Amino acid sequence: AGASSKWDIREKVWDHLESSGLAEFPRPVHRRIPNFKGSLQACSSIQELDVFSRAREVKVDPDKPLEGVRLAALQARKTLLVPTPRLRTGLFNRIVPPPGATKEILRICATSQGVKDYSVPVGLDGRARVDLVVVGSVAVSEKGWRIGKGEGYADMEYAMMVSMGAVQEDTPVVTIVHDCQVVDIDEELLGDHDLTVDYILTPTRIIKTNCKRPKPRGIIWHKVSYEMLGKIPILKTLRYREKQMGKDVTLQDEHPHLANTTRAAALNKEMAENTQPQAATGSAQMGQHHVESDPLNPRLEGSGTITTVYVGNIPPSLRVSELKCALREFHVTPFRLNWQGAQHRAFLDYKDQVTAERAVSSLKGLSLGGNALRVELAKSQRNKG
């Protein structure tokens, strides 16, 4: 019943916003963090909060109804961090307005276009210290319970910030909603991964929730699926780190207790036999042999062949430093980088095939500067001179 009740609340709010004429672009507001009439008014009241005045770095979600907060942060010359859409490239981008930016430019920087045109990715080690977090909501209660649009991104982003040390337990969380989105929410509907809020701003009031419920203390790995790990590359990095620290990073769809049972062993054996091992090992050995005996292949400290990765569809605005930042982020820094920005491409040289292939799977579809990169192993004919 829990999940459906959350959906009941969402549907009610979305329906009401639409039917009452309070919904604003982009519409319909269903399945989104809804934009509403009066959102700018609600946003501008953030300037009355001490926690905003004191904050140096503010993290604001990219949703349309939060545009006014992003503008207020830029006008107050604060560092503005915005999560990259669907967390495709790391955790957030820092919006960097050009020097001497006019009001008009700042306005553009605060829109979704600003994330594309005026932002630099912040690496996991970018030492971000976030002083204030602003999230969108579909519904929220005066006690500070929050319901998002149901994809879990805000909760996940918060957990990731905890994991990388960007937020502390007392970092305040603010949400911006229309008065009609402030509803009673049964505490039973909240999970331990659900983010709560400390301040609610509406067009007519500022509510301090005094919420005592602890916020998520980090990523709850057993609630993370393989699919999510695939969608959010930075999660792989955080998971690797936490594993090194000795944390249990078992995922939702991993069953460690099955791994060492005889049933699993039998299953693995069966799977191995079904993959025609003759053909597989045969070609693998041949490949290996080919590498060893090919005198034309440049060799490096006897570690095998240099493998080159091609990166295409690089936007003209992208700087080589931003690509390097993304490569560091995914732990796939090449030993040599051949940047051909004018041709919208770059070639990355790796000392072994494994790292090169990891680079391809990490970077594939990665969106930088608004372009989805094309990433593949380079044709071996390319002269690597």
Q: Note the gap between the termini.
A: 64 Å
CATH superfamily of the largest domain: NagB/RpiA/CoA transferase-like
- Can you tell me the CATH architecture of the largest domain? 3-Layer(aba) Sandwich
Order of helices and strands: HHHEHEEHHEEEEHEEEHHHHHEHEEHEEE
The strand count comes to 16
> What is the level 1 CATH name of the largest domain?
Alpha Beta
Estimated helix fraction: 25-40%
Uncertain regions spanning at least 5 consecutive residues: 259-303, 381-385
Strand order of the largest sheet: 4-3-2-1-5-8-9-10
Number of helices: 14
Biggest sheet layout: 8 strands, mixed
Rounded average pLDDT: 83
Helix/sheet category: alpha/beta
Strand % is 15-25%
CATH fold label of the largest domain: Rossmann fold
- Counted up, domains total 3
- The gyration radius over C-alpha positions equals 24 Å
**Principal-axis shape:** globular
GO molecular function, one term: RNA binding
Keywords: RNA-binding
InterPro entries: FTHF_cligase (IPR002698), FTHF_cligase-like_sf (IPR024185), MTHFSD_RRM (IPR034359), NagB/RpiA_transferase-like (IPR037171), Nucleotide-bd_a/b_plait_sf (IPR012677), RBD_domain_sf (IPR035979), RRM_dom (IPR000504)
Organism: Mionectes macconnelli (McConnell's flycatcher)
